[in-house]
Amino acid sequence: MSDACKKYVPEPQPQCGPIEVSAFYYPGTEHMAEWDQVEQTLPHIKPLLGWYDEGNPEVIDWQIKWAVEHGISSFCVDWYWNRGVQRLDHWVKGYYQARYRKYLKWYMMWANHNEVGAHSTEDQINVTKFWLDNYLKTPEYYTIDGRPVVVVWNIQNLDRDFIREAAQKGETLQPGEGAKRALAISNKLAQEAGLPGIYFIDMYHGWEYDQKKVDIAKVGGYEAQMIYNFDTLAYRFAPEAARPGDTPTRFSYDCVAKAVPQWWEMTSRDPKFPLWPLVPTGWNDLPRSFQYARVIEDRTPEKFRKVCQDCRSFCEAKGFKRVIIAPLNEWQEGSYIEPNQEFGFAMYDALRDVFCDKPAAGWPKNITPKDIGLGPYDYPAMPLPAQTAWDFSADMQGWYRHPYGTAYMKTVDGAMHFFRSGLKVPAIRTRITPFAAAPFKTFQVRMRVTPCVDHPPKGGEEIKLYWGTPELPIFSKDLVITEDPTAKTTVIPDGQWHDYTLDVAANPHWRGMINELWFDPSPLLLAYVDIKWMRFA
């Protein structure tokens, strides 16, 4: 059979309206381990694409088709770079191989969650050249007034490092002037490459709207602002919409629907420096945060439709021409509207019905891979290696990073190496072929922990090992990590190699068949971790 005759994703039929709709896209599922945490905690939200291979161009063509047929014309994609080291770029690579990429623009949100000193003149030159060589001049890249758009997650990190760099040369820069210097480098390189410059957008952060942060972004050379997710702020803005018994960490989506119009009004005072109106998509980060999770309940397609209607009315009254869906597919944080088993296409349909002009022939039919005999697109099941010792001489040997707080995980000089943010969750995990606990008394590890210069240890930091059994799983019935099956000891975070022994047999829960392990080398905020080996003995 020729390629032309093979079944494939049907050609997209884009829909649009007077207001341009963009959406944050988080490319956070590069293998089954990330989906596995969702499957363990919130299995009912499984995407209609399955636990899908996010870098598969055919999967991306489905995403493009569904997005543009429901009024979304561009994705703002989380993009990671730390001094030339990239991660989670599998979706962008797959996008540039997708057949239907011409229908959907994309642009990056540089998620610069980087440590002190990661930004510099040299690095800004290097990252900008990478953008120019790979993205900014491609026809698929999103532009405003002919300028490619780059959103930067953290102005403070960029500003801080350029202010430090200037101080090392005897210069004094005021807040915002460091970022201004960085963006000027990028704009100059873009103009030398034949572009009219770059349209930079600042990602706003904060529990309230702070005019000082807006002013610093203006000084820095940004031309607009966005906010990645409003939902977690909603209880503070509209506590009157809460139900009896609601708390700041568990409350109704009614608070979101009531609060977000207040946010739009508050942040629309300067039309020359717009903060894009956002359509919030909920929050439930149980798959990542466990006992520290914030859960927004009672989200429905009807309530989401009302938020969309309010947003369109606001935009028409104020003259806004662009909105941002925040976000589209943060499955691990419970912020999603991409078609799924929980809601089907209902969230997408609500968005389309509000923001698009209905054609005379009616809306395109919602088609799934199953309808036409395509798929499944699931990653292979998470492997269960039969190991009780790991040497990391070549790879991770079945260990995976926790999506919160662990990044840049790779093998370096025969050791597991990663960057730890210090959030209150274990850093790495593995699921294993069950082994009997009884023969083993200790868990041993050779490791070094190197804190970042601006976050020195306070003393007393602990290594922790958690384990699960069929009788006492890591996730309890309340979807929190159970603290009881734990062994720990004090860590020495001095950048030197140390051998540690954790007494697992001292815990009465060290029994039965062990089938899952979670390990936290240190709770330090911003630290590099290297692990030479780990073993039960």
TrEMBL record:
Give the originating organism: Oligosphaera ethanolica
Pfam families named in the record: Glyco_tran_WbsX
Q: List the InterPro entries.
A: WbsX (IPR032719)
Lineage of source species: Bacteria, Pseudomonadati, Lentisphaerota, Oligosphaeria, Oligosphaerales
- According to UniProt, the name of this protein is Uncharacterized protein
